[in-house]
Amino acid sequence: MDWAVITLITIASIATIIGLLLSPTGSTSGLSAMAGQDLELFKKTKDRGFFKILQMVMFFIVFVIAIICIVYKAIPK
Fold first, then answer.
1. What single DSSP character describes residue 56?
2. Whole-number Cα distances in Å, 13 to 9, 44, 45
3. Contact present, 22 and 54 (Cβ < 8 Å)
4. pLDDT digit string (tens) for 30-73?
5. DSSP assignments along 8-54, one per residue
6. What is the pLDDT of residue 10?
7. Quick one: CA torsion of 23, 25, 28, 34, rounded to 10 degrees?
8. pLDDT over 60 (residue 15)
9. How far, CA to CA in Å, does 28 sit from each of 31, 42, 65?
């Protein structure tokens, strides 16, 4: 397996765990998109502390995964 595949599997596992931790906080967070629930992306929430940090980490992980995929495709084999 390539370095990118191993890294993406690891990051995806972390993102899944964070999503499961965020699931009980409300209907619009965590893995609610996988359950088919309505996501309100621009709704103001009153999340604070631990849940706010987890939401920021999840947001950052999305960009990390996208950058890894772009870099992996850009590198010639």
1. H
2. 6, 28, 26
3. yes
4. 565 555 455 555 566 666 677 777 777 888 888 888 898 898 88
5. HHHHHHHHHHHHHHHGGG-TTSTTTTTTTPPP-TT------THHHHH
6. 92
7. 0
8. yes
9. 8, 11, 22
